[in-house]
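Throughout our pipeline, every protein is held as a single compact record rather than as scattered files. The record that follows is passed on verbatim for readers who wish to inspect the format.
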Amino acid sequence: MDLGTVAISASILVACTLPFAVMYKKKINKKHQLSDELQQLAASKNCKLTTTEIYGEFSIGLDEQAGYVCYVKKTENSQHAACIDLSEIKRCEIKTTHSPFDPKNPKDTEIDRLALVFYPKSKQDDPISLGFYDVDETFQLADELPLIEKWLALVSKLIK
């Protein structure tokens, strides 16, 4: 094998793997950023998160001792952060929005949005919605459904 062939092969290999390495690095940086912002939000409420989850464009955490749920979501167009005191919450449920998958058969639907909705004890306060999936932000539903069910179970144990 001559030096020219080795150089061309190495260049092609670098050109093919470099975009994947850059995407991986961006994903890791975004996870660290979401984690840091979640920890800062929790610290502002004097919470120590015992359970956390970082998934896609959001992070969620739970302080079981203080009874708080903290949430941060960052997309290209918006940012949403919330810290919810579970002692002020009456109930929590999953809200699913569907749309017809096939206009000819309206019984076939697909999930458009998944959110964990907290209903306050006070009737004057509006429900608080934490988005787990939105078809306008993410192309395809992946592990969001089991994830939201897991968090519903975690939170429901602490609501009195």
